[in-house]
Amino acid sequence: MQIFKEIEPLRAHLQHKKRAGFSVGLVPTMGALHEGHLALIRASKTATGVTVCSLFVNPTQFNNQTDLEKYPRTIEKDIALLESADCDVLFAPETPTMYERPSVIKFDFGQLDKVLEGKFRPGHFSGVATVVSKLFNIVEPDEAFFGQKDYQQFQVIAKLVDELKFNLKLTGIPIVREATGLAMSSRNLRLSEDQKNKAVILHESLSDARAQLLAGKPWADIQADTINKLNKTAGLRIEYFELAHRDDLTMTTDVDLKKAVILIACFVGEVRLIDNMFV
After folding, report:
1. Pairing of the two strands 24-29 and 143-147
2. Cα separation of 171 and 221, whole Å?
3. Which of these CATH numbers, 3.30.300.20, 3.40.50.1220, 3.30.1300.10, 3.40.50.300, describes 186-274?
4. How many angstroms separate the CA atoms of 29 and 232, rounded?
5. CATH for 2-173, among 3.40.190.10, 3.40.50.620, 3.90.180.10, 3.30.230.20?
6. How would you list the strands of the sheet with 2-4, edge to edge?
7. Which of 13, 16, 34, 37 is catalytic?
8. pLDDT score, position 170
9. What are the residue boundaries of the structural domains of the chain, listed by start?
10. Is residue 83 very low, low, confident or very high in pLDDT (cuts 50, 70, 90)?
11. Catalytic residue list contains 245
C-alpha cells in the first residue's frame, strides 16, 4: 500500500494508474477503522482497479469542539488493517493540506439537512459536503463507497453528486454489525463494556419498531413507547427516533413501508451513536 500525505503526488500517482487503464474507487473515512470500513474497501476492490482510502478527521463537520478532540485516532492500527485488506492507496493529509485557510464555503441542502442529524448538529452536513467535494476533486474517483449507517449523510452526498455533476458512481454498503447487533462505529471505541452492552438497545429498538410497523401498529404509538423505554434506561439520552421516506427523509406516518427507514440517535453516556433500519 502506498501512503500519501500531499495532494499533488497522489494526483500524479492516480493519473498514471488511469492512463494505464485502471478505474479508481474511493473510500472516505475519518480513521479508527473497523470491519464496516473494511467492507467498503472490499467492495471497492471488487468493483474498481485501484482502491484509495482517505483518512482525515474533518474539523468542519464537528459542531462540538470536545467531540472533535475526543474523536478516536488510531493511525498505526488503521494502516495495518488497510494493508491486511489489500488497500492500494492511503491518503492521510494533515489539516493544513485540506484547509490552507479557514473555510468560508457553506452548503445548503434544503429540508434534507435541516432534520434529524441536521437539526441536532447544525452545520454538520455543510462540513461533510465541503470535505467530500475536496476529496472528489483530488482523487477523481470512478466510484465512491459509503456506509448505510450514516444514512442521512449518504442522501446528502447523493444530492451533492447530482447537483454539482460529479462524474462518479455513488455506492452504499449495508451496515456491518457486531454479534450483539450494535452497529460498528469508530465512536464505539469510546464506550466501556457496560456502555456497549447498553448500546445494544438501539438496534433492539429499531428491530422491534420494524416488526410492530409490519404488524400494523400505528407509528405514533411505537414512537412514544420506544422513547419512553429509552428514557427510562439509565445512562441513555435519546435525541430522536423517527420514521422517514428513504429518498428525501420526509418524516411522515403515511410513507409506504417499502420505502421507509427508521432512524435513531442516542447518547450512551457522553458518546453519541446513530443507527437506522429499512422497514
Report:
1. parallel
2. 34
3. 3.30.1300.10
4. 34
5. 3.40.50.620
6. 2-4, 89-91, 50-55, 24-29, 143-147, 169-173
7. 37
8. 98
9. 2-173, 186-274
10. very high
11. no
For the stretch 118-147, pLDDT in tens is 999 999 999 999 999 999 999 999 999 999
User: What is the C-alpha end-to-end distance of the chain, expressed in Å?
Assistant: 39
* Whether pLDDT at 52 is above 90: yes
Cβ atoms of residues 146 and 28 within 8 Å: yes
- Residues 203, 208, 213, 215: is their CA dihedral positive or negative? positive
What whole-number distance in Å separates Cα of residue 94 and Cα of residue 259?
A: 40
